[in-house]
Structure formats: C-alpha cells, structure tokens
Design a protein that fits this description.
The chain has one domain: NADP-dependent oxidoreductase domain (TIM Barrel), CATH 3.20.20.100. The chain contains 13 helices and 10 strands. The radius of gyration is 20 Å and the shape is globular. The two termini are about 35 Å apart. An 8-stranded parallel barrel has the order 3-4-5-6-7-8-9-10, surrounded by 5 helices. The chain has a two-stranded antiparallel ribbon with strand order 1-2. It is an alpha/beta fold and about 350 residues long.
Length: about 350
Amino acid sequence: MQYIRLGNSGLQVSRLCLGTMNMGTPDWKPWIFDEKQSEPIVAHALDNGVNFIDLADFYSAGVGEEVVGRILKRVARREDIVVTTKVGYGTRSGINASGHSRKHIMDSIDASLSRLGMDYVDVFMLHYFDVNTPVEETMGALNDIVRSGKARYIGVSTMLTGQLAKILMACERNGWVKPINMQLQLNCAYREEEREMIPFCRDQGLGVSVFSPLARGLLTGEVQSTRNQTDFFTQQMYSDQASFDIAHSVQRVARARGVSNAQIAQAWVANHPGVDVMLVGADTTAQFDSALAALDTQLDAEELHELERNYTPCDVINDYTAGKRILRSARPGLDRFNLIEAVA
C-alpha cells in the first residue's frame, strides 16, 4: 500500500480509501450489504494496508455508521485507522434534520459518534455546500467541533470552486481550522473538476480524494448490475453517448493489457497527477484487489489517448445540476485500438 499526507496536514492516509456506501441495510437500497456481508470486505481492505475509511450519516439512514462501527471494533484498533463521516443529508425527515446549520451539525456529530461507538472521528466532512446557510455559521460550528475534540480535522465534498473559496475565506477571516481534504467525483467519463477545483485545491493545500472512479459501474462494462438498474443517479450522470464511448475505450485498453476494465479505469484515476486518494466501494475482495493493482498500473501515451479521446466538456455533475447534460462527440481513434476492435 502507498501512503500520503493529506493536504497540508500531518495526517497520513492510504492512497486507497474504503468507501462504505454499500454497507448498512438493504432496507435502504436493494444493493446494500448487511453487516455479515460487509465484514470480509472491510477486513480484507485493512489487511492490505488501508487505514482510511469513508462514511456518511446518510448511508442507510444511519445504519451504515452502526454496521461499519461495529465491524471496525472487531477487526481494527481505533488509533490505527482514519475514520471520516459526512454531514448534510441527514437520516430522517424534518425541517432541521438536514443541511449545514449549526443546530444540525451539532446534532449530527453527536449522533454519528453514538452510532459509530467512537469518541471522535478523524475527519468530519460537509457532504455538499449548503446554499441556504451562512458559511460563517457552518464553519464556526465545524471549528467548535474540532476544538471540542469530537473531530480531529474537517473536510468538504462536491461543491463549486467558488463555494470552496468562500469557505476558505471565512476560515481565514476568523482564524478557524480549514478543511484538509476535498472529496470529488472524477473518472474517465467525468473530468470537469480538472478545470478549476483540482488546481485550486493544489494551490490552497487541500488533499484531493476521488469517488466513483468507475463512473458508478459504467466503466466496468457491467451496466446491468442491481445498483445501476435501481439507482436513477447513474442514468442522470452517465447516459450520454460520450460516456458509453469512453466505456468502450476502457474495454479496448483492458483487452490489450489482458486485465479487467475496472483496473484500467482505476489506474487512470489513481495515477492522475491531481489525485491523492481513490475511494474504493468494493462488493467483493476481488474488486478491492483490482483497485490495489491499479496503483501500480502505469498507462502509456497511446493507452491514455484511447481513454481520453472521447471526452469533451459537459455540464458539471453536482447536487444542483442533475439531469443537465450536453451532447458530446468523440475524436478519431488510433490505429492500434481500431485494429484490436476489428480483431475482437
């Protein structure tokens, strides 16, 4: 396993982070694993050097934190792992049961710690940017949580670059702790964060962790999974022809290498110069091993061209732009991969 310091902090994390959205209860979503199914995956990741675990109160409406918390107590020492959870979407209905108000943030950290069975989380993250709450209210609450010892650091996820800038300016003005990590979506089929967010994070000293390296499963070539058949977000995000063409390019490169589509798609993300950590949401230990192999999979110039030639700019994917996609067209392929396609 490879390790890296997260942003400008002294916190050292594995370059693979175990995502846990698929762990909790199938009562929430049909593709969610229960505790018994989840434990072998968590244990396998830890056995292979992962020390970074990503959660959110939203996952399985809180049951995800309960399940993963119990598993971690059985298979790991608390001081050896870096646990992050997120606040924003909440676990129940109610006018103050979501968002980033001081009330909800303070309620949520206590509820998350109770469900996890822990005294603190290492990184407490905003799940998105709440446009309805003053940024000073949100960041002041997070600063108080760090000062209280209930979180060691704070982080952010899925927002516009200007919104992150507002957060950092508020922290600078008030002498509050700043986020050490930005968690964003990046893969061969979605690269809009390369324009501004990743360069800005590099300039400001934030670590960059990436979720959905397989474009919600599209780049594996297995689009008929239970999740893709029941998760409408996949259709909203990755239903255009350019995304399908990119998935086809991933398959071409994978066939030429003799490895899985997933390993190639993950290798593109893991070796991206703007990426520190890649999240892995594995349904099996073999899927985790694919991500592990991707860390050491170096792609050559022709492979990168094939993976990237179909990409053109698109609407940003975030919580405010769902369903707003533009038509995209591809560039011609190189003979090397056209020949492979003809033979196959």
